[in-house]
Design goal:
Distance between the termini: 29 Å
Helix content: 25-40%
Shape: globular
Radius of gyration: 18 Å
CATH class of one domain: Alpha Beta
CATH architecture of one domain: 3-Layer(aba) Sandwich
Structural class: alpha/beta
Length: 295
Amino acid sequence: MTKSLTGKTALVSGSSRGIGRAIARRLAAEGATVVVTARSSGPTSAIRGGDSVVVEGSLAETIAMIEVNGGRALAIPADLEDVDARDTLIDRVVEATGGIDILVNNAGFADYSTIDKMSLETFDRTMEHYTRAPFVLAHNAIPHMRSRGAGWIVNIGSSTGLSPIRPFREYNKTSGDVIYAAAKAALHRLTQGLAAELLDDNIAVNAVGPSTAISTPGADALLPAGYETEPVEYLVETVLAMCTVPADEQTGLVAFSLHFPWHQGLEVKTLNGQGSMPRREPPAWANPNIAPAGL
């Protein structure tokens, strides 16, 4: 392991399971002190088709996985839909660790529904998670990053935020991902605009999304039957690549998990940093609007 993040502090939202947990583990394996956060310290409920279902995973489990690998992590639970919890999260991270160098906006809410059937509550919660929460956390982290002379913000995007494949597939007609996709498109644009604003502060802002989809406890119910998913390690390695390069060398990218490592020739490590994954070429059926080097 290169331990490229030794001395750095990272906050990863939505890190009690799935993509967030994987990112937290990889950043910790590279030496970062990782603050993990989620709505609660234990399993939580998620909305699927209007029904509440229990989604397994906990911050304690994430910390245990990091510590068994020799890493350092601590948990600060925060419901990002709670105004006070959201507004004070960065200050609590800084108070607990002394500063913040890396912010990964991963936490989300997704309950797919076609627009004619979607409730206004679902619309509002989707936009809250993918636009307001990243804005607030970045807004509050920027002064601390400026004081350190550098920083890295990574927003977790999605290929759904790109123009859909034409002619429209049956999936686009029925999946109900339009509002989720619109929120992710907004997050991509926020990323690129904020990157320009913070370039002279040496704060890099990039987005990373799956080239296809990643199987997680929260996402599995949203994926069509038989959909070919990808291992999370490729996305995680792409996130790491966005946390180690100065802003004047790499900022404002919307990159994708299989395309970017393949194009850049990156070695993709396992989550504990101790093994390597095979080179994996992006599938031919991935969204053709994905730029291999990032948008």
